[in-house]
Amino acid sequence: MPNFSNQIRASSSLIRRLKQRTAIPAALIQTRSFTPCEGHRPVIVHKRSIDILHDPWFNKGTAFSMTERDRLDLRGLLPPNVMTSEQQIERFMVDLKRLEVKARDGPSDPNALAKWRILNRLHDRNETMYYKVLIANIEEYAPVVYTPTVGLVCQNYSGLFRRPRGMYFSAEDRGEMKSMVYNWPAEQVDMIVVTDGSRILGLGDLGVQGIGIAIGKLDLYVAAAGINPQRVLPVMIDVGTNNEKLLKDPLYLGLQEHRLDGDEYVAVIDEFMEAVFTRWPHVIVQFEDFQSKWAFKLLQRYRNKYRMFNDDVQGTAGVAIAGLLGAVRAQGRPMIDFPKQKIVVAGAGSAGIGVLNAARKTMARMLGNNESAFDSARSQFWVVDANGLITEDRENIDPEARPFAWKVKEAGRQGLREGASLVEVVQQVKPDVLLGLSAVGGLFSKEVLEAMKGSTSTRPAIFAMSNPTKNAECTSEEAFSIVGDNIIFASGSPFKDVDLGNGHIGHCNQGNNMYLFPGVGLGTLLSGSRIISDGMLQAAAECLAEYMTEEEVLSGKIYPSISSIRDITKEVAAAVVKEAVEENLAEGYREMDARELQRLNKEELLDFVERNMWGPNYPTLVYRKE
Fold first, then answer.
1. Are strands 381-385 and 343-346 parallel, antiparallel or unpaired?
2. Could you name the domain of life of the organism this protein comes from (predicted)?
């Protein structure tokens, strides 16, 4: 077992958080003013005339005022009627609704992909308006720019590619990355999302086409967290592909050679990390959709040296923990009862193991935060992979899964053996929670769901968390119709609520990583934390778990509405900043140093976060010759 002190950080525990949550009387809150940071300053530009209209960062289209048209040599290049941003959006939305019906790219191009094309064209022309549309309609368009549609986009990216967005570092660039990073035009980058395309959602190796997931994630960083879109950078590290179809496709845009592996692969990633942190020392790097064999190794390699995290391992885990704590609340029990939950986990990849590690640490904190508690928490999990229940009898067991392997005798006392099927495990364990992170669509068959009816819980929870939709372990309809009306259901991709009759609704909770990663990124940025600690991630998960009211949770809602994403992100970011300060990791941001951050009360901290969130408002542009 790894050193215990590294397994459990002695940061603020859930118990302490619950005890310390006290309301601050309004009369005691002092108003503190901060310098407006995002979207309020005039912007100096070094281009004008037709060049400014072709630059999506600065183009306002018909919203340029007559004063700006004169100042930037635009008079006569635009129709004379100056429009407000609201009028522009109204015109675009009318067009979008019309094109949704008329856009046809053949029988394999569904409506969602047509929407993506239309939105992407707006993104190419006018970034501010694009994000204004996205933020105002986030519930409708998040599934288009992110999961599930982004999976389809990645599968077809070579055909959809029109203009470059982001940077591409390839195996052929070895030795050149420190210089080529200066080809990116932005002097400051706050957020990078990087992928090697090896495991895009549940779709496998998509090679260079995986850049679509990095672009989609950063769209949500902008829309949800208010990261300035001029300071984000999607990155693809192309080390080849093992997808035989892509290797033979003459239209494929990436390297048509098999993937690098071993030390050669690590050397490429090392060079990339050194290059971006040399140019932008304070950037935050989110690793996305790296195959399991590298996800954990790279996370452990870099997490104590750079400001980075892996969303598949840590973000998925945080959202799942928030949902699991919500499921406890939905049973009418306090979150402190979480260590009593019996949890069967289907899937032992990077996401599954990430959730297991985070859930075990959370239980251990509640049980006393010592080695005995950590060991005791292990016995609450049963892990089933493609070969069945994992026990110590398993040959060539994955090192990351080994801590959760049952001793053969202990499994035998429960009527289980090495390789027992998912149905057998559910029948014998009678779990409170069935958690799916397998990327196997339909894994929760009728037999598995029938077995969940034997759960000892008053309100069993079913989490079908795999993405995209076709990989979900079951649908909301299947879960409610087979197991019963009183379950808690959550999924990774969106499903519709289920009409249970008599005015009752079976709520489908989307356990979307979008609830967490924008707040983790924003909180890390604003705290100036040197690293992203387990405590900061735990604070984010607990904040999300507590966001829902008691009434909402008891009705079966354990995750909030996506429409509230800006407010959710603000709260999560504030919790992350607070934890970074408590762990003495914070170094401050702009005019707010670490000591100033420490003095902020809760309302002031939320205000500080909100004032540093970019909004899609056209800035005043001032031309200056270079």
1. parallel
2. Eukaryota
For 74-110, the DSSP string reads: -TTTS-S----HHHHHHHHHHHHHHHHHH----TT--
Residue from 480, 451, 453 nearest 464 by CA: 480
570 catalytic per annotation: no
Give, as one character, the DSSP assignment of residue 592. Answer: B
Identify the CA nearest to 537 among candidates 286, 334, 291: 286
Strand order in the sheet with 308-310: 167-170, 232-238, 191-195, 284-287, 308-310
Quick check: 16 pLDDT over 60?
no
The partner residues of 308 in beta bridges, in order of sequence, read 285
Pairing of strands 504-506, 498-501: antiparallel
Q: Is 614 exposed, middle or buried (0-12, 13-18, 19+ CB in 10 A)?
A: buried
Q: How far apart are CA 292 and CA 401, in angstroms?
A: 12
Find, among 492, 485, 498, the residue nearest to 559 by Cα: 492
Which listed residue (217, 361, 570, 578) is catalytic? 217
In whole angstroms, how far apart are CA 595 and each of 10, 31, 610?
Answer: 22, 18, 19
E-state strands within 368-476: 381-385, 388-389, 433-436, 461-464
pLDDT band per the 50, 70, 90 thresholds, residue 31: very low
Share of the chain above pLDDT 70, in %: 91
Q: Which two tokens stand for residue 454?
A: 């034997």
- In our burial notation (b when 16+ CB lie closer than 10 A, e otherwise), range 122-153 reads bbeebbbbbbbbbbebbeebbbbbbbbbbbbb
User: From CA 113, how far away is CA 147, in angstroms rounded?
Assistant: 12
- Angle of helix 350-366 versus helix 292-302 axis, rounded to 10: 50
Closest CA to 79 of 44, 97, 53: 53
**Crossing angle between the packed helical segments 111-125 and 85-102, to the nearest 10 degrees:** 150
Planar angle of CA 600, 605, 609, nearest 5 degrees:
145
146 is catalytic: yes
Strand segments (E) across 124-231:
167-170, 191-195
Instruction: Please write the tens of the pLDDT for every residue from 133-157.
Output: 999 999 999 989 988 888 888 888 8
Nearest to 491 by CA among 465, 513, 516, 514: 465
Better pLDDT: 157 or 198: 198
| Top-confidence residue, 126 or 87 | 126
- Which residues does 188 contact at the CB level (< 8 Å), separation at least 6? 231, 280
- Please confirm whether the linkage preceding 148 is cis (ω < 30° from 0): yes
Residue 610 has which token pair? 């909100």
What is the residue-wise DSSP string for 7-51?
HS--S--HHHHHHH--PPPGGGPPP------SS-S-EEES--THH
Query: How many angstroms separate the CA atoms of 310 and 286, rounded?
Result: 6
